[in-house]
Design brief:
By secondary structure, the protein is an alpha/beta fold. Helices cover about 45% and strands about 10% of the residues. It is built from 29 helices and 17 strands. The chain has an eight-stranded mixed β-sheet, with helices on both faces. α18 links the parallel β13 and β14. The radius of gyration is 28 Å and the shape is globular. The two termini are about 30 Å apart.
């Protein structure tokens, strides 16, 4: 049997549910009398909302098309493009999650290499015409071609595999560094995926050297064919600079330092990718591709990939269909927004509402100076967007005109949605809502951005508590994707539906949360940090406790996070939770001293530890080891999540994970928090069924 027959026998049966991306071949007469090109169009039969992906059947289909092309002697070139708006976005992730053995995993890698490399080995020039999104294996198809054109309208070019716990396994780690140099390749392969899966656009891909020519979307294919004809005729020559003189060692070392800073060894994929990029400097194509096959086989059978795919599914699917959200038809139209307060958080919200909803937004505060500062912040941020080309001059002027300030809440008289962002004090918030309710229309939604206080208590004195809803943003407002929407005891469905509709319009991922102290993210982070800080209060050296969970690869260490949110805020939330659950949430004496001292945290401006701040936590005589701190924290998280689920704070463990991924930045390779606790044996019983977010036993 040939390799292709062996792979077909091994892989065909397991992929019967694959949505097959077909390779549709047609002959195209190139301009200028250049000859006939066989043009392959990748198309899975759906519109752009379901991108082209490749499972085994799709690879076999492309291989068959290439075999037909290879048998012909009347062709001068082969080209590959995608259906409208989509080139291809890589491997079939649903199928990847069901790979049952290392043999299967290795076969998938080897099959992809066998098929894709044929594009560059047909004996005639090969062209990729990248007309739409090209990610993962989709970009790797293009890299196997001799030449590439790209549309300036392409919204996403990326190799996101490391984000999910994989490596680019169909040629990306070997071909891209030789094409654009190791430093630029590492940006796409490692740095961008680890920066919240950042992607680049078509013009940026051209500037990096990923593509050889850039054309406008309107006549992209026609212009690409003209360019290809000139290449075939020898009128256009594409120079490929040698990359042997590039400083590969420095590029790899710099990237390894970055990965260590972000992950501290927690996820194997970026490190494996770095090794493969380093190998590309000297390896033959066969050697490099074989190494990719081995890496893919190892990682496909790892927990990190399964956790990454679970997290990806949460963000792509569950976040778009929030559990428990009322029928969207109940949502009321929002034509004007009021924001109580003009501080930094309020100003960030005002800009977001104006930019996404494109409705008037009015800020109120106690004096003109605060108002001017808040509105000025919005205008300054709009100017930054204009300077970056994110908005046009006309859009910038409209945004500035939409955001105004008022010293009186009478400006809310025609508002449909009013949100407060004032000091986190129950009495202050109740006073604000009493004043707002006196002037707003009967159906105006009243929203609070509280991070920990009870909605039910907040609305107890309102004439219409049914229109009060929690609308908890995370800082920075424009960046963090999570929105916790909290239903109080009286909140009605129309109010809740309006809140979800507004959240969607703001391009946030909303999770429905029961009115419970500190809701989800702050409750879990406070329990997490509380255990670490308690260990320090008991005598554990701060450096030991601070780094006890480094192996998880969390975005920040506990005391760095405390410094970001501010000790006063951290202490306030801890006190709130201590009042509700004194047996599980303590109030640190060291934290109280830190707040009283006025210090911003335990770190000095140069990021070294401040000895005087650290000394405020001294006094205990029962130190713990790093492993004891780690176990203590994970046991506490497992206990708190179990209680939250029993209380019905959210609908399911998946909502806990979604909140921690989107609101606390927990990495995809963990899958959130419940898969971590399941795998580590701290969840008894498990939160998720066996095999979910982990390799089946």
């Amino acid at each position: 049997m040939t390799n292709i027959d062996t792979w077909r026998a091994l892989l065909s049966e397991r992929s019967t549910d694959e949505v097959v991306t077909k390779a549709l071949v047609r002959d195209v007469e190139l301009p200028y009398g250049a000859g006939t090109m066989a043009l392959i169009t990748l198309d899975n039969g759906f519109d752009h909302t379901k991108p082209n992906t490749f499972g085994p059947h799709g690879l076999f289909a492309l291989n068959g098309a290439l075999s037909e092309i290879a048998a012909r002697n009347d062709l001068v070139a082969v080209g590959v493009t995608g259906k409208p708006f989509i080139f291809a976005v890589g491997a079939d992730l649903k199928g990847a999650a069901s790979v049952a053995s290392r043999e299967e995993a290795h076969a998938i890698g080897a099959l992809g290499h066998h098929v894709f490399r044929r594009l560059g080995e047909l004996g005639i020039p090969s062209f990729a015409f990248v007309n739409g999104a090209a990610m993962g294996g989709g970009l790797e198809i293009a890299l196997h071609c001799a030449y590439r054109t790209i549309s300036s309208g392409v919204p996403a070019v990326a190799l996101p595999e490391c984000f999910l716990g994989l490596v680019p396994g169909w040629g990306g780690t070997q071909l891209l560094p030789r094409l654009v140099g190791p430093a630029n390749a590492i940006k796409l392969i490692i740095e961008n995926p680890l920066s919240q899966n950042r992607m680049i656009k078509g013009a940026q891909a051209y500037e990096l050297g990923v593509a050889d020519a850039l054309f406008e979307p309107a006549d992209f294919l026609e212009e690409s064919l003209r360019w290809a004809a000139r290449v075939v005729k020898g009128e256009v020559t594409v120079e490929r600079p040698s990359r042997d003189g590039d400083d590969w060692d420095k590029a790899v070392a710099d990237a390894r330092f970055l990965v260590d800073m972000k992950l501290r060894g927690a996820s194997p994929a970026p490190y494996r990718a770095l090794d493969l990029v380093a190998l590309a400097r000297t390896a033959s194509r066969d050697e490099g591709f074989a190494a990719e096959d081995d890496a893919l086989a190892d990682l496909l059978m790892g927990d990190e990939l399964r956790a990454g795919l679970y997290a990806f599914d949460l963000v792509q699917r569950r976040a778009k269909r929030p559990a428990g959200a009322p029928d969207r038809s109940l949502a009321r139209k929002v034509t004007k927004v009021g924001v109580v307060g003009a501080g930094l958080m309020a100003s960030q919200m005002a800009l977001l509402f104006a930019r996404r909803l494109e409705v008037p937004v009015v800020l109120t505060d106690l004096d003109q100076a605060r108002l001017d500062k808040g509105v000025g912040y919005v205008h300054a941020e709009v100017d930054k967007l204009l300077a970056k080309g994110r908005v046009s001059a006309d859009q910038a002027n409209r945004l500035k005109a939409l955001v105004t300030g008022s010293l009186t809440k009478d400006a809310f008289a025609d508002a449909d949605f009013v949100i407060e962002a004032v000091f986190e004090d129950m009495a202050v918030k109740k006073k604000v809502f009493a004043e707002v309710e006196a002037v707003v229309p009967a159906e105006c939604v009243l929203a609070t951005n509280t991070s920990s206080l009870s909605l039910t208590e907040m609305g107890a004195d309102l004439a219409h508590p049914e229109r009060l809803v929690g609308f908890h943003f995370f800082n920075p407002v424009a960046v963090m994707p999570l929105l916790e929407i909290i239903r109080g005891a009286s909140t009605d469905d129309a109010t809740l539906a309006t809140a979800f509709a507004v959240g969607k319009a703001l391009k946030k991922s909303s999770v429905l949360v029961k009115d419970a102290p500190a809701f989800v993210v702050n409750r879990l982070l406070t329990r997490f940090m509380g255990e670490v800080i308690a260990a320090v209060d008991e005598g554990t050296p701060l450096e030991v406790a601070e780094h006890a969970l480094d192996d998880l690869g969390l975005p920040m260490t506990p005391f760095a996070l405390l410094q970001l949110v501010g000790p006063a805020v951290g202490l306030h939330v801890a006190e709130t939770l201590h009042a509700a659950f004194p047996e599980r949430f303590g109030v640190s004496e060291g934290m109280a001293k830190l707040v009283a001292s006025g210090r911003p945290g335990v770190y000095a401006p140069d990021f070294s530890l401040d000895p005087e701040a650290v000394a405020l936590f001294a006094g205990g005589e029962a130190p713990s080891s790093a492993e004891e701190v780690r176990r203590r924290v994970l046991e506490a998280l497992a206990e708190e999540i179990r209680i939250m689920l029993d209380e019905g704070v959210v609908a399911a463990p998946q909502d806990i994970d979604l909140c921690m991924i989107l609101g606390a930045g927990w990495p995809f390779h963990l899958g959130g928090v419940t898969p971590l606790l399941d795998r580590a044996g701290f969840a008894r019983p498990r939160f998720l069924p066996p095999g979910v977010a982990s390799v089946p036993a």
